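Write out the 3D structure for:
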Amino acid sequence: MALGPEERLGRYGEAFVTAIAESAGLTVLSKRPADFYLVDLEIGHPGPRGRMRTPILNVQVKCTQNAVVTDNLVQYKIKARYYNDYVRPCHEFGNPIFVVVVVAPKEFENWADVSRDRLVLREAAYWTCLHGEKPSSSSGDSKVRVTWQRDDEHLLDKKTLLAMFDHAERMRYSREGVFQV
């Protein structure tokens, strides 16, 4: 029995992020039970970075074939019940939560190319952190559109993944990511 489309998307997205993290020399800790902790992956830095010793990022991976990606913006719709948790102040969580949207090709057979000397995963992943954003008045399974810049800073690669640890440290120590009413 083959995996259904949603399960394939979810697993592909996690494999995509894991490949980038492992190639950056980071650790990827085991997946938590489905949606209990709002996170799919824990990515760890094996050693000190900034003021933290062995910091960890919580990552929620969303893989889609339907994100709106323009030259300048990435837009993705998140269920309001999750969005309203992601925007909560980061100090309410053990580790900041980052949302990574993996944009996959429409056709499953175009996701990966393998040869003797390379593995190519298509298309791209973009990250954002919603801590401190304004909560939505929507609730439940209704959708909230999240928009962020499509630039080199938000394209997930080895460099930006490491920079996410610095972003997390700034939030921890400066109370950045705390919504002010």
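The radius of gyration is 16 Å.
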